[in-house]
């Protein structure tokens, strides 16, 4: 079964998640935006072995420490979709703009596309391409665990910003309604910021995309 621990990192309190297979203790880290020493201390405490970095998108608070972590531990970088290539290339400038530690651009080991899967130990997660917040944003969904790691697509009571370069409000709404809601009302989502929620609650009451918003 898939297990996970969410660790807020950076001044933006970005939810970085360590996900692992409880049978093999092999792990991936989703969106290592920064604070690597803290994240690696949690990995050690959990007794898991990092095998990959998974990225939902390439904004600095989600991807800022990716290159350093990949180099330190010789990890493959999986994701996001290549629509975010320009954001990856701009990571050094993003870091300077928002006061982050120096960040390096990188080339993912594997770009992701809608319908792909990623695997850690015995756990397989489906990949959905959910553009809108960024053009290359992806979401990781475990049907077995009823969990989805959604980055900055959806939040409890809110949705991702679309005023950054490449953002598109109509695309974001379509991504949520057409690709997240079919994952099921009982699915719990882990957003890029803030508390977890359920798709059912947001589908009914979110003021931006909810039926009764």
Automatic annotation (TrEMBL):
<dbReference type="Pfam" id="PF00753">
    <property type="entry name" value="Lactamase_B"/>
</dbReference>
<dbReference type="InterPro" id="IPR051453">
    <property type="entry name" value="MBL_Glyoxalase_II"/>
</dbReference>
<dbReference type="InterPro" id="IPR001279">
    <property type="entry name" value="Metallo-B-lactamas"/>
</dbReference>
<feature type="domain" description="Metallo-beta-lactamase">
    <location>
        <begin position="13"/>
        <end position="193"/>
    </location>
</feature>
<dbReference type="InterPro" id="IPR036866">
    <property type="entry name" value="RibonucZ/Hydroxyglut_hydro"/>
</dbReference>
<keyword id="KW-0862">Zinc</keyword>
<keyword id="KW-0378">Hydrolase</keyword>
<dbReference type="GO" id="GO:0046872">
    <property type="term" value="F:metal ion binding"/>
</dbReference>
<protein>
    <submittedName>
        <fullName>MBL fold metallo-hydrolase</fullName>
    </submittedName>
</protein>
<feature type="region of interest" description="Disordered">
    <location>
        <begin position="192"/>
        <end position="213"/>
    </location>
</feature>
<dbReference type="GO" id="GO:0016787">
    <property type="term" value="F:hydrolase activity"/>
</dbReference>
<feature type="compositionally biased region" description="Basic and acidic residues">
    <location>
        <begin position="201"/>
        <end position="213"/>
    </location>
</feature>
<keyword id="KW-0479">Metal-binding</keyword>
């Amino acid at each position: 079964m898939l297990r996970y621990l969410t660790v807020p990192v950076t001044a933006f309190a970005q939810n970085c998640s360590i996900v692992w297979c409880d049978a093999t203790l092999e792990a991936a880290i989703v969106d290592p935006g920064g604070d690597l020493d803290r994240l690696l201390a949690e990995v050690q405490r959990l007794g898991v072995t990092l095998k990959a970095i998974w990225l939902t998108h390439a904004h600095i608070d989600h991807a800022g420490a990716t290159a350093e972590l990949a180099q330190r531990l010789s990890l493959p970088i999986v994701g996001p979709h290549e629509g975010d290539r320009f954001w990856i290339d701009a990571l050094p400038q993003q870091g300077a703009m928002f006061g982050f530690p120096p960040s390096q651009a990188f080339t993912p080991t594997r770009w992701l596309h809608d319908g792909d899967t990623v695997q850690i130990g015995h756990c397989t997660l489906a990949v959905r391409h959910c553009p809108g917040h960024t053009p290359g944003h992806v979401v990781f969904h475990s049907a077995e665990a009823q969990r989805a790691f959604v980055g900055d697509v959806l939040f409890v009571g809110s949705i991702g910003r679309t005023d950054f370069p490449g953002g598109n409000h109509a695309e974001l709404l379509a991504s949520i309604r057409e690709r997240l809601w079919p994952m099921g009302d009982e699915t719990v989502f882990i957003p890029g910021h803030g508390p977890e929620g359920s798709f059912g609650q947001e589908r009914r009451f979110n003021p931006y995309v909810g039926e009764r918003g």
